[in-house]
Design goal:
Blueprint lengths: L11 H12 L15 E10 L7 E10 L2 E6 L9 E3 L3 E5 L1 E2 L21 H11 L2 H18 L1 E8 L5 H14 L2 E6 L13 H11 L4 E2 L2 E7 L1 H4 L2 H14 L3 E5 L3 H5 L2 H7 L7 E5 L5 H10 L3 E3 L1 H6 L7 H7 L3 E3 L4 H4 L4 H16 L7 H15 L17 E5 L11 H8 L5 E6 L2 E5 L2 E2 L4 H19 L2
Parallel strand pairs: 1-4, 1-5, 6-7, 7-8, 8-10, 10-11, 11-12, 12-13, 13-14
Antiparallel strand pairs: 1-2, 2-3, 5-15, 9-10, 15-16, 16-17, 17-18
Protein name: Amidohydrolase family protein
Organism: Antarcticirhabdus aurantiaca
Amino acid sequence: MTLLRRDFLLSGAAALAATALSARPGLAQPAPSGAGSSEVILSGGYVVSMDPSIGDLARGDVHVRDGAIVAVAAAIEAPGVARRDMSGCVVMPGFVDTHWHMWNSLARGLPQSRLGPFGKTMAPLARAWTPEASALGVRLAAAEAIHAGITTVHNWAHNVKGPDFAEAEREALVASGLRGRFAYGYPQALGEEEVMDLSDLERMRDRHFAGGSAGLVSLGICARGPDRSASPVWRREWEAARSLGLPITAHVASDRAAAAMGNIAVMHRDALLGPDVQLVHATHATKDDLRRVAESGSPISISPWTELEVGYGLPVIADMADAGVEMGLSVDNMVLAGHADMFGVMRITADLASGMREDQGALSDRRVLEWATLGGARGLGIAQTTGSLTPGKRADVIAVRRDAINTAPVGTVDFMLTHAAQPTNVDFVLVDGVVHKENGRHTRVDQEALIAQAQETIARLRQEAGI
Ligand SMILES: [Zn+2]
């Protein structure tokens, strides 16, 4: 049950209806307009709209009604509408994560074990994994997303060992109330010559996504792609996804050996890139590769923390920016990264670009901020819905404290957001107009129970996996 502050609500019967709206479980549809809907003005914050036609407002109001942004301006007069004081905060669009293996969040802090590095540690865990554990992983990741101000996730489900796994993850993601894409995947142990379960993918599309989305979640596929599966296999998977009208994502050119396979050029040659094909990592893509990627419209998702931790290397971030690639940022997974801190992801992105180029101006903080919001939304094909505070878009809005011990004084807001702020500074989170975090606290998640369940489940899985 969600508890809303009274000042968020209209009075009387409308207040009750708005509370009900905020607590609805699946967020299937925006609330009906008219009496009983929730409406609020987030008032007096420093507004970073990420909409070029609005820009930043040193003091601005954001008017939200029925889960949508209806106006963003320096001062909004709307008699009778509740106002929420945001004067100590930066008000901005929620972060868009573009690649996240949410299922394995329970294995946070196990990047390696006595069995060996990441792959050798995760393989027996993935074999022991259950649908319930996958759902719990999604719930844990979703709760951390809200904590960190991430309102959209791209759930890269790459341990779907059967329809029950796919259903468990889909259901948990929809129930989380986050906006996102469920990328239907394959079992970790699937052989390179084996095709993923395309018939169950089609079943899921027809059953849950016939209208394009289920609640706030849409469907896609995550494939092993040319670097990690045989040529006839990934080509068959591409063909199936495209005939089903589903977007595709794959890890490509992650390490030097993968990049040396030259698959970006092959995909470009065979028209197998495009805005519907997201490339993950591309850590060692050459300048020619990046030119091809930009030309095709394929977005790239980078996750610098995990690329460093697992030893892929230093991602060629400034080259990607220079090539004009559509860029998005990602957490990837908590096993390797340890956290889902999008502020931290922005920080390492900006500073790797400067350090590797030996140029402080290699990549502006504002550009990185754009990748974490609007760029990510464009890459996922949902920029018409989220990614900026633009009237008409859905209300995925966060407020970040600018008066905290670690954020004040604010030199520039761009630097504060990319270099000073942390998830604990996220004071308020709206997803599709629904309050998920208020005064720095979750409103819809019983954290204590969730953590206890996660600890108990991973202990059992570790025992079974022998780590
Ligand atoms: Zn990944």
